[in-house]
Design a protein that fits this description.
This protein is α+β, with helices and mostly antiparallel strands and about 70 residues long. It has helices spanning about 15-30, 60-65, and strands at about 5-15, 35-40, 50-55.
């Protein structure tokens, strides 16, 4: 279970393409993740800030993927 005290942020940004790429690779490598999207009002905009979090035990595996 990913909780605030055992998670690490691995991506923060506004790029939809990079966000989708990272989520796809995480899912393909069976790394559990959570994400948040902040900003915008009712419509998807490029101004939305996206955050991806993984469990800290998976951080080394993520770094080996060299996504960010």
């Amino acid at each position: 279970m990913i909780l605030p005290w055992n998670r690490r942020e691995v991506y923060v940004g506004t790029s939809i393409e990079k966000f989708d790429e990272i989520l796809g690779v995480l899912a393909g490598n069976k790394i559990k993740y959570e994400y948040t999207v902040n900003g915008g009002r009712g419509f998807i905009t490029t101004a939305q800030m996206r955050h991806i979090f993984i469990h800290k035990k998976d951080l080394t595996k993520f770094q080996e993927l060299r996504l960010v």
